[in-house]
Task: inverse folding
């Protein structure tokens, strides 16, 4: 089911904020871009997936030592 108008606005705000995270969080950028695809008409599951991503990012803060370990 598609989200109602108030949830759509909240989703756009959340996805917009996550979009800024792609500048520093390379590890989740692919997930953020996949959520951005559904900005026009998000479903309830997309809102839940965005919240799951936010919780995961809070539990796993990105450090540049991880980036240096890969290089």
Result:
């Amino acid at each position: 089911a598609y989200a109602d108008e108030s949830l759509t606005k909240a989703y756009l705000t959340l996805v917009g904020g996550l979009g800024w995270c792609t500048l520093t969080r390379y590890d989740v950028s692919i997930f953020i871009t996949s959520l951005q695809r559904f900005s026009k008409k998000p479903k309830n599951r997309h809102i839940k997936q965005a919240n799951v991503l936010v919780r995961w990012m809070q539990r796993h803060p990105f450090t540049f030592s991880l980036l240096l370990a890969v290089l």
Summary: The chain has a mean pLDDT of 87. The CA atoms of residues 65 and 71 lie 10 Å apart. The chain is about 70% helix and 0% strand.
